[in-house]
Amino acid sequence: MGEGEGNRAYGHKPFKRSRSHFSDRITADGREGWPVEAGRYRLVVSRACPWASRALVSRRLLGLEGALSLAVADPLQDDRSWRFTLDPDGRDPVLGISHLAQAYEAREPGHPGGVSVPAVVDVPSGKLVTNDYQQLTLDLATEWTALHRPGAPDLYPEPLREEIDEVMEGVYRDVNNGVYRAGFATGQAEYEEACAGVFRRLEWLADRLAGQRYLVGDTITEADIRLFTTLVRFDPVYHGHFKCNRWKLAENAVLWAYARDLFQTPGFGDTVDFDHIKRHYYQVHTGINPTGIVPLGPDLDGWHTPHDRERLGGRPFGEGTPPGPVPAGEEVPAVPAAPAAGA
Hints:
The chain is mainly α. It contains ten helices and four strands; from the N terminus they run H-E-H-E-H-E-E-H-H-H-H-H-H-H.
């Protein structure tokens, strides 16, 4: 997600997602100059952003909290984009900066493109390392293995990578990015094409998931993480704000059960902040919601209701184990639990 100025233009000019300008990789062997090292880097996210939420889920599942520290930006941007107004004195306590843009400028003054999350910053130098949201989580899964917790799942198993990549390509094009192409469309035909593509892919996914618990194989993989971060935002923002309203997620039995299954799995729902999500989309995207009014709904109680997906088998963490409790200071507001039966 990019900087504030562009938010006022959404809906008025054609939407095209920018490529990540900073695509350096942090690797086990340090071949690009950035070796994996505990405590050296800081992950900057917005809990509102689906691309950043991928990294939040991966970091939790892999148990990297102690090795890769976390900075959470305010869901509301200003004209310098992501800011640290949630922290005391409006500055990130580790990086000492008020805006993520300062780390971008430290890396490349006058750099082209916007200021996006997720971003990884080198703490000693204060310079941005990468904002490549597509590669970042793959590297967390495959290059940071020496720092994974005991029992961490294999989120990108080598024998399944070709199939995972194929599934993720369609999910990215039609769902992850498709909802944006629909929501920021500037003409009716452009909107209808994008919206139709969203629901064609969702129906394809529902067919696939009707007979298997997870997207690829019998464990959670990167493919599930990437789909989840869009599905969890679907009814709160994409259905109304982005006009992807042929049906709600809660009206599709398979996808709604699948999303609840993941939400109730440690590492997924405990990273989701619906307040940040709703306020960001409805208050920042003034190009398509000029009043900035945030809707009261939808009711979130259903996220804790039984999903019955266990009947399909599957092992969420494979040979591994669930992640431990959310670290102190990283908790998100709890979604209300579903009423007890008969209540």
